[in-house]
From TrEMBL:
GO biological process assignments: proteolysis
Membrane topology: Single-pass membrane protein
TM annotation in the entry: 12-28
Keyword tRNA-binding: no
Organism the protein comes from: Lutibacter agarilyticus
UniProt domain Band: residue ranges: 29-194
Keywords assigned: Hydrolase, Membrane, Protease, Transmembrane, Transmembrane helix
Protein name: Regulator of protease activity HflC, stomatin/prohibitin superfamily
InterPro entries: Band_7, Band_7/SPFH_dom_sf, Prohibitin
One annotated GO molecular function: peptidase activity
SMART domains: PHB
Superkingdom of source: Bacteria
PANTHER family assigned to the protein according to its UniProt record, in alphabetical order: PROHIBITIN, PROHIBITIN 1
């Protein structure tokens, strides 16, 4: 009898075990955990597919029907490093290295998934960036790309790429031109030209400086000449005699001088001999 009870016990537990297994499977299929920096697009099998009229699922734990599906997207800023070969305005090959900062628009994830899909980087961002880069670089010469226009080119590539991606539910934050590589012969020619221009500017600066110095000397000389002319015009014989007398008296009173006066000099001035 005891043996029969032991044999019947597993039979009574079988439904419970089956129910438990089904519940575990149901729960495993019905729960979704979305990590930090992510969001989920809900796809309903029996209710219209991709949900676009509701916000995407945010971070944390969620329960969904097991026959539905959740596609998780990273919504943090991401970087695309791209090296591409483009043509300048005169048809020369230019190697352009860029960094692009982008992220999907979180509130438009449903439309992004429905229209483009998870592989939106390859399907839309890279083609848009390459198209904008070719369009912009094709308007400039290698010399402009190498020197003065790099910031302008970077901004133009950013604006053209953003215009495309704004309609594709993707937010573009920045496009940075990391490097512009020209053919070696063109690069050397540009560097020589820039060096010659710099030397020419330096030479012109020296000429301008020298001209200003000469002008300064002329002005100073003219000033001194005018000063002497005014001084000469203001002097007369009486003033000169008075100045001579003052100088003679000061010299005569000097303890270190011995003065011998003999006769008189020109204009009645004394002649001074001896200074020991």
């Amino acid at each position: 009898m005891a043996n029969n009870a032991q044999l019947q016990l597993p039979k009574t537990l079988m439904p419970i075990i089956l129910i438990g297994i089904v519940a575990i499977i149901f729960l495993s299929k019905s729960t979704v955990t979305i990590d930090a920096g992510e969001a989920g697009v809900l796809w309903k099998r029996f209710d219209g597919g991709v949900v676009t009229d509701q916000p995407p699922l945010g971070e944390g734990f969620h329960i969904v029907a097991p026959w539905n599906n959740v596609i998780v997207y990273e919504v943090r800023q991401q970087e695309l490093y791209e090296t591409m070969k483009v043509l300048s305005s005169n048809g020369l090959d230019i190697l352009l290295e860029t960094s692009t900062w982008y992220l999907p628009k979180a509130d438009e994830l449903g439309y992004l998934h429905q229209k483009i899909g998870e592989n939106y980087l390859e399907r839309i961002i890279k083609p848009a960036l390459r198209s904008a880069a070719r369009s912009v670089v094709g308007r400039y010469t290698p010399e402009q790309l190498y020197s003065s226009k790099r910031d302008v080119i970077q901004n133009e590539i950013f604006e053209e790429t953003r215009t495309i991606l704004d309609d594709e539910h993707i937010q573009l934050n920045e496009v940075l031109v990391r490097d512009v590589t020209l053919p070696p012969t063109i690069k050397d020619a540009i560097e020589r030209k820039l060096k010659q221009e710099q030397e020419s500017l330096e030479y012109e600066f020296r000429l301008v400086t020298a001209a200003k110095e000469a002008e300064k000397v002329i002005i100073e000389a003219e000033g001194k000449a005018e000063s002497n002319r005014i001084l000469s015009a203001s002097l007369n014989d009486q003033i000169l005699r008075d100045k001579g007398i003052e100088a003679t008296l000061e010299l005569a009173n000097s303890p270190n001088s011995k003065v011998i006066v003999i006769g008189s000099g020109k204009n009645g001035m004394p002649i001074i001999l001896g200074n020991q």
